[in-house]
Amino acid sequence: MKPYRRRASTLTVRRTLRRRGAQPKVVALGGGMGLSASLAALRRITGDLTAVVTVADDGGSSGRLREELGVLPPGDLRKALAALCGDDDWGQTWARVIQHRFQSKGEINGHAVGNLLIVALWEQLGDPVQALDLVGRLLGAQGRVLPMSAVPLELQALVRGHDPERPDDVDTVCGQATVALTPGDVQSVHLVPNDPPAVPEAVEAVLDADWVVLGPGSWFSSVIPHLLVPDLLDALVETKARKVLSLNLAPQPGETEGFSPQRHLEVLGRHAPKLALDVVLADEAAVPDRESLADAAKRLGAAVELAPVARSDGSAKHDPELLAAAYDRIFRMHGRIGPWR
Questions:
Q1: Which residue in 172, 153, 267 sits closest to 215, CA to CA?
Q2: Amino acid 340: pLDDT
Q3: What local confidence, expressed as pLDDT, does residue 14 receive?
Q4: Which distant-in-sequence residues (6+ apart) come within 8 Å of 294 by Cβ?
Q5: pTM of the full predicted structure?
Q6: Cβ atoms within 10 Å, residue 91
Q7: If both were cysteines, with which of 67, 106, 149, 311 could 319 make a disulfide (CB 3.0 to 4.6 Å apart)?
């Protein structure tokens, strides 16, 4: 069996960047597969990367562990850690291990190995941040993963037409898993508790960043929740970092069915009217009305950057290499040209 080794070329590049001080400090906010896509791209262009992850998931393995043990839902944190694993044998082996789900007829069915590992360390250490840092070191993760809050949160949405027989009525829909697939028109979302404490390390990371990246991801259940944590929103408003919002490649069935790219910006602006952005990144093939998107971005203080960032297979998924190239160009065009610090 061949030994696990990091590729010398990757190490050489990163060491050179560190010596030159050329790496931007980047914080990426989100959850699920959208955040994973951003992290897979961003780790290719900086070694100073922090993920701040939503903790409102209540479905699947995460929901079961949350209900049984009263812990933070670990699933989105696990996905972020997997996305930060390197491309060498060690990184890719551990990425597969923590993403592995048990298949059985018993109670362990559907649980992900990484979820159980994270929760075990939480119970051992009693500190969610310390435990995630330890998992990151084990995996050789190229960045840090933090929860946005230290308490499990419930996502609630006001939805018009949730019941097809009452299309004009507005109902409250509870739970991230339910909100993500809800029929009807989501009017707004909020968190319970409505004033959750932010993890201090997440606030510090945002305040100390050169760039903050929001999205892509489930708009109401992964992107906007970060703006509903008061201390985290204050940090996003106050930070001197520049902010880029990465749009999805297509509306999502359920919560953003029928949304145009500009409507995504409009609902985000309604949830955080004090938040200004610098850049909105969109795939050029996913924007049918460029003028309307530019107008919506301008109202948030942002310019629009269009770039091909989708995979070539026709799926509504980002290509990590193309997304990395787009982020790198944005950081250089709209920020300081290195050295960064």
A1: 267
A2: 45
A3: 43
A4: 304
A5: 0.89
A6: 22
A7: 311
Q: What is the DSSP letter of 3?
A: P
Question: How confident is the model over 149-169, as a mean pLDDT?
Answer: 91
Other C-beta atoms lying within 10 Å of the C-beta of residue 287: 19
Beta bridge partners of 26: 49, 211
Q: What is the pLDDT averaged over residues 14-30?
A: 69
Which residue shows structure tokens 């409505």? 194
CA angle 103, 59, 115 (to 5 degrees): 55
Q: Which residues are paired to 214 by β-bridges?
A: 29, 245
Distance CA(97)–CA(313), nearest Å, equals: 26
Q: Determine the residue type at 298.
A: K
Q: Cβ(206)–Cβ(241) under 8 Å? A: yes
> At 109, is the secondary structure helix, strand, or coil?
coil
List, for residues 191-225, the tens digit of each pLDDT value: 999 999 999 999 999 999 999 999 999 999 999 99
As beta bridge partners, residue 65 has none
Q: What is the DSSP letter of 224?
A: G
Q: Phi and psi (nearest 5°) for 18?
A: -65, -45
Largest distance between two CA atoms of the chain:
64
pLDDT, mean of residues 104-123: 91
Assess contact for 37 and 61: CB atoms under 8 A.
no
